[in-house]
């Protein structure tokens, strides 16, 4: 079959299986010394195009990755270490995933080194026994702790230290959104810590995936302060979020409208508008579909690169499916507000 037809068939199957849940892997084993990760660099984000600018973002590079270790699937959120050298991630099958980003001579990401995987431990110090408890969807780093939000069994748990949480027992935190408002598979998808010098002064924010009020707005909250709402535009659903250095909140959103109609976008929310009782919205920085190298995009983080620019890292959730990919994609933020502040 010609290469283009082969790709079309894969994309059709991807669309059909995009939201299918992954089954739990066999009983988790202890943290391994290192997990081998194979990677295939993605030179161009636009398929068959040489463009590097996509909305307010400039493509830096990326790669698809895989492993013979069956635990490496379902990556749902990522937080980068300073200057993007390393990362900590969670999977929706209940595992920590950490490593370092390998780069070529031009600084483009080409793979993962020092990969390690370990089960996320519950307050009793045991691995999550089933998908209902293991469905980790969001990750934030705040106050030296890794905060993980879970769907299905709606909760937030804290793990210390954030630098190496692999053997830490989860500590349950108060639920910031009333439990009765959270949908079974559309709950606490996003958790993100604001910068200390931002309008929210380091507060942690959570946003639901598809849990909405009577007006169709998404439930969200500033932890310890109260609930606010995020305007939802159908068919988009929030899959992750992160704060920019200036305190604005970026939301990663996904759409799935049937065979071949899959997309992702990133929306920017003015951090000064986020407060209990507010309804917030903001402009779209970038939108992509299957004409670009996307998959089931689930994780987003922002960080300051060695070049002084704000970089965005995005990861996909392969749902444990042969027809989907684990992706790591990296962009530079090039919008006018950042450019003006850098002059």
From TrEMBL:
Keywords: Signal. Residues 1-26 form the signal peptide. Residues 72-320 form the Phytase-like domain. InterPro entries: Phytase-like_dom (IPR027372), UCP031900 (IPR014567). Pfam families: Phytase-like (PF13449). This is Phytase-like domain-containing protein. It comes from Aureimonas phyllosphaerae.
């Amino acid at each position: 079959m010609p290469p283009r037809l082969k790709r079309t068939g894969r994309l059709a199957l991807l669309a059909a299986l995009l939201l299918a849940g992954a089954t739990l892997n066999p009983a988790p084993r202890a943290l391994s010394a290192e997990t081998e990760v194979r990677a295939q660099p993605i030179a161009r984000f636009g398929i068959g195009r040489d463009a590097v600018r996509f909305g307010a973002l400039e493509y830096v590079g990326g790669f698809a990755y895989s492993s013979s270790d069956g635990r490496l699937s379902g990556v749902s959120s990522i937080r980068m270490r300073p200057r993007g050298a390393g990362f900590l991630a969670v999977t929706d099958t209940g595992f920590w995933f950490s490593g370092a980003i390998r780069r070529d001579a031009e600084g483009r990401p080409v793979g993962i080194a020092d990969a390690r995987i370990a089960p996320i431990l519950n307050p009793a110090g045991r691995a999550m026994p089933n998908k209902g408890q293991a469905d980790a969807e969001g990750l934030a780093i705040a106050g030296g702790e890794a905060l993980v939000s879970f769907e299905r069994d709606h909760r937030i748990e804290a793990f210390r230290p954030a630098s190496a949480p692999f053997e830490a027992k989860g500590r349950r935190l108060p639920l910031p959104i009333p439990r009765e408002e959270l949908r079974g598979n559309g709950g606490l998808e996003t958790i993100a810590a604001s910068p200390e010098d931002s309008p929210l002064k380091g507060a942690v924010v959570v946003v639901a995936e598809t849990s909405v009020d009577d007006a169709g707005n998404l439930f969200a909250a500033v932890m310890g302060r109260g609930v606010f709402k995020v305007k939802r535009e159908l068919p988009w659903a929030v899959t992750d979020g992160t704060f920019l250095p200036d305190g604005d909140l970026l939301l990663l959103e996904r759409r799935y409208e049937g065979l071949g109609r899959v997309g992702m976008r990133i929306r920017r929310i003015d951090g000064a508008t986020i407060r209990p009782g507010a309804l917030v919205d903001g402009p779209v920085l970038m939108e992509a579909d299957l004409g670009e190298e996307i998959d089931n995009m689930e994780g987003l983080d922002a960080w300051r690169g060695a070049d002084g620019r704000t970089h965005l890292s995005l990861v996909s959730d392969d749902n444990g499916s042969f027809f989907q990919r684990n992706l790591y994609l990296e962009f530079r933020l090039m919008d006018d507000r950042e450019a003006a502040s850098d002059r």
